[in-house]
Amino acid sequence: MAQRKPNIIVTGTPGTGKTSHAQQIAEQMPDLKYYPINDVAKARDCIVGYDEERQSSIVDEEKLLDAIEEELEAGGLVIDWHVCDIFPERLIDLVLVLRTSTNLLYDRYVERKYPENKRDENMDAEIMQIILDEARDSYDENIVIELQSDTIEDLESNVERVVEWRKHWDSNNEDK
Asked: Is residue 19 a known part of a binding site?
């Protein structure tokens, strides 16, 4: 049986650079697939509504997990989503929680023209490290990595770090 490839979650408050990181990781490791959950949820008919106040789709997480379970079990996914705690721990090998300084994050929200309530909610989530805490509560502490994501240099350094992690992961999982 061929070795299963790792599943990596790239998560964080909106605006922290999840998509850029996940795409770069997949680009550096072409045997892994960039897996944007928002797109997957739409394609698999897992959107059950729209939250006007948050200006975001509402995903049926149970339906989503059922729809992607086989792909998760096969491995090789770089999962891009703002939520991480719904994925079964047994199928996740690394959780990257991106953090951005609040002044930069605020500027990104203004640039994206987020309404004040959405901007405030996301700022509060970052300040209170909601996503980091959810990751730490849901996965083994050894696979949850907090990464600073303020600059292009941070992005490059973070991706290099994941590439190195992958080399170690491969050598530790040769027999699986």
From this structure: yes
Domain boundaries defined on the chain: 8-36+76-171
pLDDT in tens, 34-86: 999 999 999 999 999 998 887 888 999 999 999 999 999 999 999 999 999 99
State yes or no: 15 annotated in a binding site.
yes
Q: What is the pLDDT of residues 84-104, one digit of tens each?
A: 999 999 999 999 999 999 999
Query: Would you call 147 exposed, middle or buried from its count of C-beta atoms within 10 A (0-12, 13-18, 19+)?
Result: buried
**Annotated binding-site residue? 161:** no
Tokens of 127: 């300040």
Amino acid at site 159: V
> Which neighbouring-strand residues pair with 162?
none
Known binder of ligand: residue 75?
no
Please check if 76 is assigned to a binding site. Answer: no
Superfamily per CATH, domain 8-36+76-171: P-loop containing nucleotide triphosphate hydrolases (3.40.50.300)
> Is 63 annotated as ligand-binding?
no
